[in-house]
Design brief:
Radius of gyration: 19 Å
Strand content: 15-25%
Structural class: alpha/beta
Number of helices: 9
Number of strands: 12
CATH architecture of the largest domain: 3-Layer(aba) Sandwich
Oligomer: single chain
CATH class of the largest domain: Alpha Beta
Strand order of the largest sheet: 2-1-3-4-5
Order of helices and strands: HEHEHEHEHEHEEEHEHHEEE
Length: about 240
């Protein structure tokens, strides 16, 4: 159990929970957050739009019984727009035809309510193992800060000083994630409305370089209202 907790802390999934029941939603958000994941909760699927505009979670937990909405249609749309995302659906129905419909709509896992936190934890742990294995299989990128060199299976590139500072800071940060403000300070960006846009441009350029040398997508993930997380396997060398 302790080794699994250590693995979770190291990996840390980004999870979106869509559940209209406030008590159940808060319970799941708190439980998974304490496991070391970055969790956001939403009462309605419509509330996801702003979140998904800048963040693609590793896992979405979706209640199919949301009021006023077609849960199966939402699942189908999420699968079409975010093909790499794991989708776990919850439903009050345990009927075989509903379960089949859920899987056909794009769900990876279908659980019948009520779902306890320990049961949810087991499912999430399995997803952690899958994501961890996938990242281990991905080609690793090496970085030489002194030479400003970025090397991967698809070639080598030279980084600018700001790009190297960004990458090194993300790679060495706890859970490899850093708040927006900290990165703005590191790059000496003025604290005005243009600062975040400038940071986004620099991160975008760094992501393109990581992808160019063979890093799997997403190399860097934007965390809604938080900052950035380095997802690519990166090895710092001297």
């Amino acid at each position: 159990m302790s080794s699994m907790r250590a693995e979770i802390r190291q990996l840390g999934l980004t999870i979106a929970i869509v559940e209209d029941g406030a008590d159940r939603r808060d319970l799941f958000v708190d439980f998974l957050s304490r496991m070391g994941h970055l969790v956001s909760g939403f009462a309605l699927a419509d509330d996801l739009d702003a979140y998904l505009a800048c963040t693609t979670p590793d896992l979405m937990v979706l209640d199919l019984d949301l009021p006023g909405g077609d849960g199966y249609g939402i699942t189908k749309r999420m699968r079409a727009t975010h093909p790499g995302m794991h989708i776990l659906v919850l439903s009050a129905s345990a009927a075989v035809e509903d379960r089949i419909r859920g899987y056909v709509s794009g769900a990876d896992i279908y659980l019948s309510k009520p779902v306890s936190p320990p049961e949810l934890a087991i499912v999430v742990n399995n997803i952690v193992r899958r994501v961890s294995h996938g990242r281990e299989q991905a080609a690793q990128v090496s970085v030489n800060p002194a030479r400003l060199e970025l090397a991967g299976p698809a070639g080598n590139l030279t980084l600018s000083h700001p790009e190297m500072l960004l990458l090194k800071t993300l790679a060495e940060a706890p859970e490899r994630q850093v708040p927006y403000r900290r990165l703005q300070e590191l790059l000496q960006l003025d604290p005005d409305g243009r600062s975040k846009a400038c940071l986004e441009v620099r991160v975008s350029r760094l992501k393109k370089k990581l992808h160019s040398v063979g890093s799997p997508e997403p190399a860097i993930r934007s965390l809604w209202k938080e900052g950035y997380r380095l997802c690519a396997p990166v090895r710092m060398i001297s």
